[in-house]
Amino acid sequence: MATSLTEEIKKVEAQAKQQVAEARSEAAKIVSKARDEADLMRKESKQEAYKRYKNRLTEVEAEAEKNADSIVAEGEKEAQKFIEAGRKGVDAVSSWVAEEVMARYGRS
Predict the structure, then answer these.
(1) Assign residue 106 a region: left if phi > 0, alpha if psi is -120 to 50, beta otherwise?
(2) Any coiled-coil ranges, and where (predicted)?
């Protein structure tokens, strides 16, 4: 009986060792699978974030282009107004200079 009890204990210990080894193996597989899934999710998230970044950048560039066009148009209008204002002054000054020259040196 002692022999069979000893053999029974050894048999149960061997089964327990086998179950522990199988559990460790299964746990390693689960951890590996979880890491792979986490890496995949990280890559997908990174790709999605980059895609959103590029889309937003395109939107901002288009908006900046529109703003730049309106700013340039406004600047051209202001430049034209400045030119017109200066032209009136230049015309008046050139007439005055011509009159002064004619008055001083006469019409020859």
Answers:
(1) left
(2) 2-70
